[in-house]
Amino acid sequence: MHVSDIRTCMDARSAPVVRRKIMVFEQDKFLASIMHMLLYREGFDLSIITKEENALYHIQGQPPPELLFVNHKWLSDEYPPIIQGMQNHEGWQDVSVILLMSYFDEDIIEHATDMGVSDYLLQPIEPGELLDMIQRY
Question: Which helix H or strand E contains 71, and what residues bound it?
Answer without folding.
Answer: strand 67-71
